[in-house]
Amino acid sequence: MIIAFSISPSAPDETGSVSAAVAEVVRIVRDSGLPNETNAMFTNLEGEWDEVMAVVKQAVDAVAARSPRVSLVLKADIRPGYTGQLTAKVERVEERLR
């Protein structure tokens, strides 16, 4: 499965930024060893249900340690039996654009 998720604290730091909390989430995702990518809006993560949800929980817990309230947006593509789709889906679209 592939998930796209975004986590943010309810309150920014003293400069109005949430980048420190987001950086901690990205660190957790990268340390998971699961295929992932981060863009300006979401972090995409690929793996089995229990694997990706464990990473999301760890990320939520890390942000919750910084803020009394956490926002989580999550979208999932659940397709049993398929792996490597984080890049393969994009490659199929790019192939059609040629």
UniProtKB/TrEMBL annotation:
GO cellular component: cytosol
InterPro entries xrefs: MTH1187/YkoF-like, Thiamine_BP, UPF0045_domain
All copies of domain Thiamine-binding protein, residue ranges: 4-94
A UniProt-annotated Pfam family: Thiamine_BP
Source superkingdom: Bacteria
Family: Belongs to the UPF0045 family.
Protein known as: MTH1187 family thiamine-binding protein
